[in-house]
Hints:
By secondary structure, the chain is α/β, with parallel strands linked by helices. Helix content is 52%, strand content 11%. It has 2 domains: 237 residues, Rossmann fold; 147 residues, no CATH class. The protein contains 14 helices and 9 strands. Helix 9 packs parallel to helix 13, helix 10 packs antiparallel against helix 11 and helix 12 packs antiparallel against helix 13. The protein is elongated, with a radius of gyration of 31 Å. It starts with 5 loop residues before the first helix and ends with a helix.
Amino acid sequence: MFLPPPEVLDFFPDYRTTQIAWQGLAPVAAWAIWSLKPGRVVELGSYRGDSFFAFLDAASQVPELREIVAVDSWTGDKHTGPFTGQVYAQFHDELERRGDHRVRSIRALFSDAATQFEEGSIDMLHIDGAHEYDAVKLDFEQWLPKMSPNGVVLFHDTMVTDPDFGVWQVWAEIEAAYPNRTFNFEHSNGLGVLFLGDDTTGDFRQLALLPPREAAILRDTMRLTGEAIVNTTRYEYLLITRNGGAVDVGHIYSRGHDRTRIERLRSIEATRLETHALNAWIEQWFNVHKGDLTAALVEPSMLTQTKLLREEFEGQLQHHVARLEQLLAEQGNAIRLSLEPLVIQALTTPGGSLGPALASFLAEMSREKNDAQDDSIMSLGSKADAQDQAIDTILNYIRRNDPRFTS
C-alpha cells in the first residue's frame, strides 16, 4: 500500500489564519517540498499566507530550495472581495518575522510578475489566484514557459464546481492533455497536481502512477490528516468565541505544535462544563429529594432515611467537587469549590418549622445558581463565589427561621 512518510502525516503548519480553505492541504505541501526538493517555488495568489507559509515551513528542511516567491496584487478579486491594507500588512509582517533570506514577495498582477522570471527557471508553481475559467487558463498558459522540464504545477479549488468557478474545467482539460501525469487531492476544495516531465524520482511523483484503489486510500489518508488541522482551527475558534474572546479577520491561531494556548482553553472549557454539571446535579438532587428533606424537618421518624440521603449526597458531591478541583489545579487556578457540611446537617436535622419554607430555600438557591452560569470563562472565579453565596443564603435562611440557630 502506497502511503506518505510518517513525517508528512505529522506535519502541522506553524501559521494558521481565519482562511481555512487551504489549511487541510498543508501536509500535501510539505510532502511535495520534501520529496521534490525544488530549487525555486512560486505561488500565484498568497492572500493571508496559509499556503505560502506551509511551503516555507517545509522548506526549512530542504537546503536545495534556493528561493520561494509570493506573487499577489493584494487587492482582491471577485471571490475574495476587495482587500484592505491589513491583508498585505499581515502577510508582510509574517514574512519579516521569519527572516528567511530565500523568501521574497512581488506585489503585482500575475501577468506583470511573469516577466521577472526566466524560462525554465521555476520548479514548482502553485496557482491560486482568480478562479474564473479564463483567469485560471491564462495563468497556466502565461507561466507554463517559466517551468523547468520536470516542474510541478499545483492548482487549488479543483473540486469547486460553482457556476463562477472555472478551476475544475481547466483541470479537466489538463487531465486530458497530460495522461498519467496528474493527481487530484479532493479535500479542502481540491488540489490538482500536474507533473510536466518524465522524471519519477521521489515518492511524490508516484502519485500519477497509482492504481485507482491505492489512489482512493491515499486520498482518504491525506483528507483525514488535513481535517485534523482544519478541525483544530475550528475548535480553537469555538473555544475563543464561546469564552468571550474575539476572532477578527486577521487572527493568527496558536502556532504549530505549541499547544499551550489551545490546551489552556480546553482546560478552561472542561472546568466550565464541570461547573455547569455540578450546578445541574445539585438542582436535580434537591428536586428529587426535597419531599424527603421537607418531611425530615418536621417528622423525627424520617431521620434514618434522611441520614442515608445525606450520605448519598455527600458521597456524590465529593466526587463532583474532586473532579472540579482537579481541573482547577490543572490550570493553576486558586479557585476551589466547597460545600458547607452544615447545610446538609441543617436540612436533615428533624424538628423545627422549616418544612413549608424549604421550597423557598431551593428557589433562592436556584436563582443564585443560575446567576452563576455565565458562559464567559472570565467569570469562572465568580461562578465559584456564587455557588458559595448560594450555600450561605440557605444557611442564613435557616439561622433566621430555626430557633435552634437563634436561641
